[in-house]
What does this fold into?
Amino acid sequence: MSSSFGVPQNRKRVIIFGTRVDIIEEPVFPSVAVEDLVTLKHAIYDLPLEYDDSVLNHSGTKHKVKINNYVGNRQLDWDKPSPTITGRGSRSGGAVIHPHPNRHRRLTVRECARIQSFPDDFEFVGSNGACFAQIGNAVPPIMAFFIASQFRALFNKEKIEFSKVKWSLPYEKEINKRLISRLFD
It folds into this structure.
């Protein structure tokens, strides 16, 4: 689950490792990385409550907030990771976007990007619906970092510490505080 790697999202995905037959050493799937989960509050607390063009991709949908516990209509909890950010649309064709924890609007493109662990300087291009789909269909970059790092040893590459990468996310320090191990020892 991505939240085990410091992503503020409970996103379950199947990841299959494979190597060529001529590579003798097998990659090892990284173990759980964080002691305590990074929450929605860590991810989006500092973003403006209203849509704001001065923040990259801090735009969203006019779709009404309706809490009925279906996908995209669940009450989010500031003190827990977000449910999965999806890339699929609803039956009416629009993206399924969770309500903001304050329930006054849906999450913005930037909020979804942060929850997915995209850095703040990563720009999504296209309509809001296209941007939501790009984010929802992606592997969270922080989770991808930990998975890809397992392959570095197979190619005699130096190990990279999470703390040595500039993520441009407000919660990267929080992840560093919560790491159980560097996964590479």
User: Anything to note?
Assistant: The CA atoms of residues 87 and 136 lie 4 Å apart. The longest helix spans residues 141-152.
